[in-house]
Amino acid sequence: MKILVINCGSSSLKYQLIDMEHEGVLAKGLCERIGIDGSRLTHKPTGKEKFEVEKPMKDHRVAVEMVLEALQDKDHGVIDSRDDISAIGHRVLHAGTVYSDATIVTEDVKKVIRDCFPLGPLHNPANLIGIEACEAAMPGKPNIAVFDTAFGMKMPDKAAMYAIPYEYYEKYGIRRYGFHGTSHMFVSRETIKRLGKDDAKVIVCHLGNGASISASIGGKCVDTSMGLTPLEGLIMGTRSGDVDPAVLQFICNHENISVDEMLDILNKKSGILGLSGVSSDFRDVIKAAGEGNERAKMALDAFKYRVVKYIGGYTASMNGVDAITFTAGVGENNVLLRKEICDYLGYLGVKIDDQANSEAMGQEREISTADSKVKVYVIPTNEELAIARETQALVS
Ligand code: ADP
Q1: Tell me: the pLDDT tens digits for 50-67?
Q2: CATH number 3.40.50.170 is the correct assignment for the domain at 2-147
Q3: Is the entire prediction scored with pTM above 0.85?
Q4: Residue 380 Cβ < 6 Å to ligand 1
Q5: For residues 340, 341, 344 and 349, what is the CA-based torsion angle, rounded to 10 degrees?
Q6: Which of 75, 101, 148, 322 is an active site residue?
């Protein structure tokens, strides 16, 4: 079975065609600048040369048609006909409180995605456009929505609810949803496979430019650090993570700025960028810290401290932890940050194998010692494969 995975942004469309027999990527690519001048498709078939097409794409429907043409191209293609595609899996940001699992797209599902525009104003409209473009290009083929909020929807109320008047939950669905859900689901399941323990207590640290952490038991989320929006939780590249909401009022009043402007600052100018004043890219901040920049050091210390605080909290709330897994840009690639985070965790009996840790760069590896009480892994995230697996499970 071949599954097309689609991730639509407002002016972009990323895709992968995955052969589920060996879970291999047949081709992947990106349409950029959809609806604006200079539209371009970059197509990378596995084992063949990549190619680019610059051609106007007035909307996502045209983009999907171009993707299908590229997939069938006589030189760069990987399938004979669009009929070779069994189903399409879509990354969709928000399903509000309605869905806690992936689902086959129907008119009702599209309505839910539409109803959630206010909760995911940047992503949900684009996700729906992508679904409708695929429906038009491949009538009758099943489209599956895989929601980024699905994993977090399994959190119990005690972890999900904000302690504010309940009517705001009832009126607007204000609660914690969590994001990076597809990544947390994939990595926690892969961790369980490696542990060989179905009811394992797992903490996944998704540390990238956006960063979040989750606790799950047997693959079911019990808590996760992002909230109503991806702003809550860990310190990130440009996002503040947790702050006292009274800070907003104080700064708005003293700087004479609006709440919207303040949220823009918390989303785009805070995090390790705001603290260090150097960059939102961890590599730049690590370099500056190495050269003696005190604020860069402080920013990295604060980042690690917050991760460690969450790991401690989640270990307490699960009454133990079997494995801690690092993933995403920083989690997969940075040997030193992983080591420094784990050095805090001696009280849990965590012991890192320095050799294994230093060799785990963007590849799967157990990095704890044989006698560590908690297993520690690096497992690269693969959201496209997770979406393809969910899609296959629903259409088989
Ligand atoms: P996102 O998907 O949220 O944009 P990624 O998971 O791609 O984020 O991670 C991007 C981050 O990973 C960047 O801040 C980058 O600096 C960091 N990163 C990548 N490689 C390394 C490395 N070797 N050491 C430290 N940070 C790294």
Answers
A1: 999 999 999 999 999 999
A2: no
A3: yes
A4: no
A5: -110
A6: 148
